[in-house]
From TrEMBL:
<dbReference type="GO" id="GO:0004222">
    <property type="term" value="F:metalloendopeptidase activity"/>
</dbReference>
<keyword id="KW-0732">Signal</keyword>
<protein>
    <submittedName>
        <fullName>Peptidase M23</fullName>
    </submittedName>
</protein>
<dbReference type="InterPro" id="IPR040487">
    <property type="entry name" value="Peptidase_M23_N"/>
</dbReference>
<feature type="domain" description="Peptidase family M23 N-terminal">
    <location>
        <begin position="25"/>
        <end position="96"/>
    </location>
</feature>
<dbReference type="InterPro" id="IPR050570">
    <property type="entry name" value="Cell_wall_metabolism_enzyme"/>
</dbReference>
<feature type="signal peptide">
    <location>
        <begin position="1"/>
        <end position="19"/>
    </location>
</feature>
<feature type="domain" description="M23ase beta-sheet core">
    <location>
        <begin position="170"/>
        <end position="264"/>
    </location>
</feature>
<dbReference type="InterPro" id="IPR011055">
    <property type="entry name" value="Dup_hybrid_motif"/>
</dbReference>
<dbReference type="InterPro" id="IPR016047">
    <property type="entry name" value="M23ase_b-sheet_dom"/>
</dbReference>
<dbReference type="Pfam" id="PF18421">
    <property type="entry name" value="Peptidase_M23_N"/>
</dbReference>
<dbReference type="Pfam" id="PF01551">
    <property type="entry name" value="Peptidase_M23"/>
</dbReference>
């Protein structure tokens, strides 16, 4: 293996280009790495054995890497495969201290499911995993998203969550509070790869935007698209609701890169400097 160790001194809150998401080199963030001129074929890139999205931007190839929330700080590397050789490009991840959020859930089964609930949750997992493991080769033109719903940004990504004082998984998306029935629109072109009603997520839609970039829309009151449907930016996906594990009507919005949950706000230009309102 030909190893070229290129340590990138990545400073959080830097955007490399208008067509790329906001770069934030922290657990749960995104790293954009330039790979070379588009005059050469696009390479295949892997991070932690998972395929990475490649984007053409300003006549250069870029790898857009999702960083798992569980990642340790320090040096990491991607593997770039081209013309029969593999090159390693190293980059640094810095720490981020996500705040804690304490939530009271009246439906105690949404915190501690009973045996029948656990069977349902287990039976739903394959369909969700199939959606999240989707990989399609189509080119991705840009990674600039619009907000899928108009509302108050109520819970940011990455919060350390406690339900009824019990520690649970960190908050995996961005919550937007809005009245039941508020329209939810596709933030970017894509294809509907899954719709369903799931125990925790409630009424759900998953979109495939290409090359492992998947977005999810949870807790909907109504779904207005079908699996296999092609949508454009602004196409109505459904309406805000409070199905699944919720304390009130809102959209929970997830974005996945290389099978990794990342902060959706990094894809929305108008949120680049916007802070969510304090968590109640």
């Amino acid at each position: 293996m030909n190893k070229l160790l290129l340590t990138l001194l990545l400073v959080p809150q830097i955007s490399l280009s208008s067509a790329l998401p906001k770069q934030l080199a922290v657990p749960g963030g995104i790293v954009n790495i330039e790979l070379g001129s588009v005059e050469t074929p696009a390479p295949e890139v892997f991070f932690q054995d998972k395929r990475v999205l490649i984007l053409e931007n300003d006549h250069r190839w870029f790898a857009v890497i999702g960083i798992p929330l569980t990642s340790k700080t320090g040096q990491h590397a991607i593997q770039v495969k081209t013309e029969g050789k593999t090159t390693e490009l190293a980059f640094d991840i810095v720490d981020k201290d996500y705040p804690a959020q304490y939530i009271t859930i009246k439906n105690k089964r949404m915190v501690n499911p009973n045996p029948d609930d656990l069977k349902r949750i287990s039976s739903e997992r394959p369909a969700i995993n199939k959606a999240l493991n989707t990989w399609t080769e189509q080119p991705v033109e840009d990674l600039l998203f619009s907000l899928p719903v108009k509302g108050r940004l109520s819970s940011p990504f990455g919060l350390k969550r406690f339900f009824n004082n019990q520690p649970k998984n960190p908050h995996s998306g961005l919550d937007i509070a809005a009245s039941t029935g508020t329209a939810i629109s596709a933030p970017a072109p894509g294809m509907v790869i899954n719709t369903g009603s799931y125990y925790y997520n409630g009424n759900t839609v998953f979109l495939d935007h290409g090359q492992g970039l998947i977005s999810g829309y949870f807790h909907m009151s109504k779904i207005t698209v079908k699996a296999g449907q092609i949508v454009e930016q602004g196409t109505k996906l459904g309406e805000v609701g409070e199905t699944g594990r919720v304390t009130g009507p809102h959209l929970h919005w997830n974005v996945y890169l290389n099978k990794t949950k990342v902060d959706p706000a990094l894809f929305v230009p108008e949120l680049s400097e916007t802070k969510t309102e304090p968590v109640q």
